[in-house]
């Protein structure tokens, strides 16, 4: 019984694509974690995101409320309103 072997060029393409996809996914994960960490630790960065990308900050607050820290949204809002009043 003869066994057909797959073409090596196809396997090279599949292996190369899988490696590229893995690296790309790792880079995207690292970048998203970096943004999350910066948003979690830097109120000024959150204010910048609020002014330029409010939908991103809304998702950040929603995730925080699901995980358990529901006071960040109110704390940021009161801090930013106090800053606007002092200006």
List keywords for this structure.
87 residues, mainly alpha, 4 helices, 84% helix
Task: Explain what you see.
With 87 residues, the chain is mainly α. The protein has one domain. The mean pLDDT is 88.
Radius of gyration: 23 Å
Q: How many individual domains?
A: 1
Helices, by number, come to 4
The strand count comes to 0
Q: How much is the average pLDDT?
A: 88
Protein name: GH19557p
Keywords: Membrane, Transmembrane, Transmembrane helix
What is this structure, in a nutshell?
By secondary structure, the protein is an all-alpha fold. It contains 4 helices and no strands.
Give the topology, please.
Blueprint: H1 8-41, H2 43-52, H3 54-67, H4 72-86
Helix pairs in contact: 2-3
């Amino acid at each position: 019984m003869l066994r057909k072997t797959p073409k090596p060029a196809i396997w090279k393409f599949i292996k190369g694509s899988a490696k590229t996809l893995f690296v790309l996914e790792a880079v995207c994960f690292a970048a998203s974690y970096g943004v999350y960490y910066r948003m979690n630790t830097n109120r000024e960065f959150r204010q910048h995101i609020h002014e330029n990308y409010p939908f991103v900050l809304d998702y950040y607050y929603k995730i925080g409320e699901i995980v358990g820290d529901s006071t960040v949204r109110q704390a940021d809002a009161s801090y930013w309103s106090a800053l606007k009043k002092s200006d």
